[in-house]
Design brief:
By secondary structure, the protein is α/β, with parallel strands linked by helices. The protein has 3 helices and 11 strands, in the order H-E-E-E-E-E-E-E-E-H-E-H-E-E. It has a domain at 52-173. Helices cover 29% and strands 22% of the residues.
């Protein structure tokens, strides 16, 4: 009967530096692949048909104003419902801001909400004192492409009166021939 000549060396619970470097490299590659280089990503509302454009500029972080065929939202919070009425000439259904919600071309509830956002942004800008955090009156405007221009004009006028003068329209990036 033969003797067992070799015993296994004792197993130590230490990691080798090579294994740790491999693990760190994999984590680093994963983080780099999942990191987004764009400022923000905008998800259109389900009730919104965004126009197509050949624009290449990505949107910047700003107050998000959404105008759908059923209502107006500021930073995804409903502000006002829009009404649908038959057009007197064609008989087709037209979307518009209810008359009792307007003062001339200005939409009262929207103005109050946007002014509140502008004042908060100005106050925050004054407290931080950073130049890049300065309130510039930028607003991201997502409008349904089927809306009449009169509604968009009233929304833009109201935003302008509430200290938002720089509009960035959100569009879907399309081909050059559109």
């Amino acid at each position: 009967m033969g003797k067992k000549k070799g015993r296994r060396p004792p197993v130590s619970g230490e990691l080798s530096i090579t294994s740790m470097m491999d693990m760190m490299t994999i984590i680093l590659v994963f983080l780099l692949k999942s990191y987004s280089t764009e400022d923000i990503s905008v998800k259109p509302s389900d009730d919104l048909e965004v126009p197509i454009s050949s624009a290449k500029k990505p949107p910047r972080l700003a107050v998000n104003l959404i105008v759908t065929r059923s209502g107006i939202l500021v930073d995804s919070v409903p502000v006002l419902g829009l009404e649908r009425v038959p057009d007197e000439e064609t008989g087709e259904e037209v979307v518009r801001v209810p008359d009792d919600e307007k003062k001339g071309q200005m939409i009262s509830k929207l103005y109050d909400r946007l002014l509140e956002k502008a004042e908060y942004a100005e106050e925050l800008s004054a407290k931080t004192g950073a130049e890049d955090g300065e309130f510039k009156g930028q607003i991201l405007l997502q409008c349904d492409r089927r809306l009449p221009f009169s509604v968009i004009r009233e929304v833009m006028y109201t935003a302008g009166q509430a200290k938002f003068g720089e509009f960035k329209f959100v569009v879907i990036q399309g081909g050059e021939g559109l």
